Each structure stands twice: as structure tokens, then as C-alpha cells.
Amino acid sequence: MRTDAVLAGLDPEQRTAVTAPAGPVCILAGAGTGKTRAITHRIAYRTLTGEVSPRHILAVTFTARAAAEMRSRLTELGAAGVQARTFHAAALRQVRYFAPRLLEGRAMPELLESKARMVGLAAARAGVRADRTGARDLASEIEWAKSSLVEPTEYAVAAKKALREPPFEPAKVAEVFAAYESLKRRQGVIDFEDMLRAAVWGIEEHPDVAEQIRSQYRHFVVDEYQDVNPLQQRLLDAWLGGRDDLTVVGDASQTIYSFTGATSAYLIDFPRQRREAVVIRLVRDYRSTPQVVGLANAVIRQARGNEARLRLELVGQRPPGAEPELKIFPDEAGEAVAVARRCRDLIASGTPASEIAILFRTNAQSETYEKALAEAEVPYVVRGAERFFERPEIRQAMIAMRAAVRSIPGETPLVQAVVEALAATGWQREQPPPGGSAREQWEALAALVALAEDYARTPTLEPIGQAGAVQRDVTLTAFNDELSRRAEQQHAPTMAGVTLASLHSAKGLEWDAVFLTGLADGTLPTTYAKTPEQLEEERRLLYVGVTRARQWLWLSYGQSRSTGGRARRPCRFLPQLERNSSTERAGDRSRKPDRRRPQVSSCRVCGTTLLAGADRKLGRCPTCPSDLDEELFERLQQWRAATAKELKVPAYVVFTDATLVAMAERRPGNPAELLAIAGIGPRKLGQYGESVFALVAGASAEEVARKNFG
């Protein structure tokens, strides 16, 4: 393949990235801007021009799927032979190759696929009682520490500094950490972090190994650079050995894995650390409609903190599409029913089920949507987690509740009975535990209690033959039967269907239609996000969710978790959700829209969704060209000043500056056109409409003022 074919079809920024000279290159690539295209074409261009040999390039990414896609694209571009691997795969290959030399002839130790079992043994040795969930959380803490280059003796101080919430006292976690390291050495096994460390050690401490690796790999490309952790960066530095032929690509606004040790600091500091670096910004979004892009920009525009320094303002490249649908429902159940029905409608109108996704903050939220989709006969798949009723803690809880029927008095109120039954599993209603896995398990069981509350609060009438109807039995036995029915209904096998996924699991994916659900404070952002940095990461989660949608986007929340529950505020990160949305009851299709609520509007120039009040008044983005009639604007100002003086009110009470600019740009000639300007309602139309129309028609400010006030 010739180089002109590699350059064909690239936009100017992509072309700059592809043809940038050797040396440090930083590609800041927004969602949907073609980052994989840019870096694969850059690699292919450099190999086809003879600048580098394919065998001397190492391209590193974070998932095997992304690495496979990169290799496939490079082969199509004529750059076969380039090594594209994850950090772990590249390190494993090198450690295995050099093991005889590094280990003095001994075989490479066995690699642990999972830490949990050995961490559980280490916990027992350290005198820490940890069940399976506790062991998973301890393993996560150890992974964070090792990825952050923190030793057991340093853990307690480092965890406090990083504002970690470990599952046990930091000193105890440190003891388990030390016991885990000792057990591994005794059993002759290593974990994935050890493997990365071994690769670093092999290069840093063995000059012959370093020379061989560095002669093999001379040019490096790192994808998703905002997700690199300190250990991975240490390995990258070892590979480079002081050289600077490095291309990194990332988006600080998609930094959502800080809890694992990933940090965007290396991406943010790249230009400062490498003064000669070429920095290219990819902002042309080819994935989403301008309406979706506009909403994404509005979400991330308010970001603060270090990541916001590299914030990108995306520019939609696709034809205009539907406005994002912003909905408020009385409760989560009503929200789920409405979402399921819309999914069914989308599928009926030709959208493949596999091109639809329902995204939420935590996996525990999936049950409501699983039930609603099952009842609507919409196929679905759960990504990145088990279906709700297949989760081990839910199966255990259902067993406990069936057993509790024999021990809990029948007259005990249902919710109290469920809480007492769950207490037997160790669950405590008012005490969410620290640790990610334990907290997720706690939330799943809390979802069972919420189901019980809803079941008890809204008992339906069931028909009984010819005798009419009786009220549903609200007992623990009846509730257990209801859960079994739901489990059976939701366990039906599916081949392809609507994707249910958490926002973290959705990273790197995209769909034609996306439902972002549960957008209420306390859920997104989660109540566990307390520091400014944690809250900003929650904002970025919403941004990632918005940018998953290609054509159609729905955003919603239930005003309460269940019928009659405590009211919640809308997600603080979504601009004007409450004012720009309609409140609906699930299934109420005859309800007329609330005309008092302004609808989401689009820029009349580029089609981007407008959410800021001033932008909606103007009817365009602040960066789009203005067609202001300056002479009309001057007359409007003069008339406003005279009117305000006569009425003895401040000028802005008549019309704001932004409204005058909108009038001078849009030149309304009739009531409908004047009402189309955001913020102008029937009262202002009645007060000032005739004056505005006269001014637009060419009358002077003095003429209109004389006519109005004599």
C-alpha cells in the first residue's frame, strides 16, 4: 500500500498526527474523533516511508480486544509485523524469554490468575477474618498498592494520603499485604504486578537484557495513556531507556479508573516533561450527532481540576439528529418501564437490539431494568457482571429469606422481615461497608430491600375466579414467591439483545441508541464521592456515558427510588435537566407535553444542542458566527433605555442584553418568531411585541417610544 492511500480520508488534525516527525508526540483525542485511525495510520505511514521497521515498533494498549483491533487495522494498512499488545502481554512475553538468564536457569514461576484465594489465606495468617467478598476487596487494595509502587510497610501512609477506603484498618491491610507477599515467595508463584516488576527489574538491573530489548523496540505507541498507572509508566520508561520516540494518545476527560491506581498525570504532564513534544488535538467527532456532541460539551465544560486543563471542545461531524430526550419519572420502576417500552419501539422501528444500551452507575441497578425488559419481552444481555438474580449474594439472600419464613413471625411487616432475614447473611441496613466489592454486594442486597418496600407499598388486586378480586398477600412467603417468579422470568437465555452495563463497563464501546438512567444525586454522583477529585471523576463518568451514543440519547431519573419514597435531586452535572425535561408517568402516552417547560433547542448554525441559558436565547453556539444587525441592535438598545426610564425599572427588566442580541440576529417579524426566542413568553409578547415588530420593520426608537408613551 502506498503512503498516499494511508493519508487519504484523514482530516487535517489526523494528518498532522500521522505525519508528525520522530520524537515525542502527544495526541489528545476526544471521544469519537478517530484516535485508533490516527495512531494506526501513523504507524503504517512511518513503516511505508521506510522511516522505521515494523519489527522495531511496540504498540501498547489496555485490552486484548483493542490490541487485536490494532493488529487487524495495521495488517490492512500494509504494516504487518508490528507488535500490538497489552502491557501485561508484552511484559509476560519478555519475562518468559529472558527467564533462563534472569533466574539463572530456573523456570519462570507460575502466574496467579487470581489473587483472591491466596489473599484469603494471607488474611487468615494475619488474623483478619475475611469472607470471599472481603478477600476480593483486600486483593483490590493490594493491586492498587503494587500498581502504585507502594510496599507493605508504606501502605498505611500511602492509603491515607490517597484517601483510600480500605475494607479493614490500614495497618491490618498492610499485614495482609506482607503475608500475601511472603506466601507467594514460599509457593514460588507471582501475580500480574510481579510480572511487570520483573520486566522492569530485568531491564534496569541487567544491561545485556536492556540492550537486547531496546535494540528490538525503538519506537513506542501507547493508547489510552490517561489510564497508565505508576508501575506501567516505570516499565515504559525502562523500555525507552532515555529515548524519546514515543507517541501517546489519550483523553483526560475519560479518566474514570483512578480507584485502580490509573492516573492522567502522565498525559497531563507529557508536554512539560518533554519540552520538544508535538501536541495534536483531535476534536472532530465522527461518532455522534451534533446534538449528542453538544450535550457532551455542556457536561464537561463545567469540569474543574487537573484533567480539565486538557479538556477538548468536540465538533460534531455527522448530520443533525434527534435532540437528547430528557425525562423525569415519579420513581425508578416507572423509569424502567418507560425505558423498556421505548426499547421495544426502537426495535420495532428497525434498530437492532444489539445497537441499544441501557447504562447505569452501579451493577446493583440492573435488576429493575432486567425485570422491565423481561415483562416487555425485550431480549437483553448484561455486560461485565452477572444478571441480578445470578449474583452469589442474591442467591444466598433468597435462601436466607426462604429459611426465615420458619423463624420470623408471620405478622412481621414485610420490609422488617426482609431486613431481619438479610441480617443473618451479615448485611446491616445502616452500615454500607468500605471496599468496592463489599459495597457493591451491600447495594445489591439493599436493592432487595427496596423491592420489598415497593412490593409492600403497592399491593395490587388479583382476580379470583368469578368472585371479584382480593388484595395481594404482603408476607415474606409471598415476596419470596415474587422473587422466584422474577428470577425465572429474567433467566431466559438470550442470544443478542439490549445491552445492560455500568458506565465503567461501557468505556470504549458505542451504540446507535443509549439510555442513561438513574441520573439523580446520590446515584450519579454516588454518595461515596466526597472529595472534589472524586466528584470530578463522577462528572467524567457521565461524559463517557453521553459520548457512547451515535444517533439517539435518552437521559432520565426517577424522582424517588420507589413509589412514595423520598424525593431526589437531578444529577448536578447535567445542565438544566430539570428545566429542560418533561415529567412523565410510565406508559402515559396520551399526556400532553408541559408547554410551560422550554424544550431543548439546537444551534441554528451547526445543530449542536444548546443548554446554557444565554446560548438558547441566541439560538446558536457562542463560537458560531453571528449575523447581528448592528443598526437594529442599536435601535433596540435606545428603545429599551427609553422604555425602562418611563417605567422606572432597570433596563434588564424590559429585556436582557442577550435577548436584544437574539432579536437583532433573528429579526422576529411575528408573534411565533418572537416567542421562539428563549425566555420570551406571552406576557412579554403582550407588553412589548408590537414595539419589537415595529423596530424590526425599520421604525426608529424615538417613533416607537412616542407611540407608546406620547
Plain-language structure description:
GO terms for molecular function: helicase activity. This protein is of the alpha/beta class and 710 residues long. The chain is built from 29 helices and 21 strands.
Form type: globular
Largest sheet: 7 strands, parallel
- Unreliable stretches (pLDDT < 50, length at least 5) are 461-470, 577-581, 585-600
Query: What distance lies between the first and last C-alpha atoms, to the nearest angstrom?
Result: 80 Å
Q: Give the fraction of residues assigned to helices.
A: 40-55%
CA-based gyration radius: 30 Å
Work out the strand percent: 5-15%
If helices are DSSP runs of H or I spanning 4 or more residues, what is the number of helices?
Answer: 29
Total strands:
21
Give the integer mean of the pLDDT values: 85
Structural class given helices, strands, pairing?
alpha/beta
Write the SSE topology.
Elements (H helix, E strand, L loop, with lengths): L2 H5 L4 H8 L5 E5 L5 H14 L8 E5 L2 H13 L6 E4 H16 L7 E2 L4 H10 L6 H16 L7 H7 L8 H18 L1 E2 L1 H14 L1 H10 L2 E4 L7 H11 L5 E5 L14 H9 L4 E5 L1 E2 L4 H12 L13 E2 L8 E7 H17 L7 E5 L5 H10 L4 E3 L9 H13 L9 H10 L12 H22 L3 E3 L5 E3 L4 H15 L7 E5 H4 L4 E6 L15 H15 L2 E12 L21 E2 L17 E2 L6 E2 L2 H6 L11 H18 L3 H4 L2 H10 L4 H5 L6 H16 L3 H9 L1
Parallel strand pairs: 1-7, 1-8, 2-3, 2-6, 4-5, 6-7, 9-10, 11-18, 11-19, 12-16, 12-17, 13-16, 17-18
Antiparallel strand pairs: 14-15, 20-21
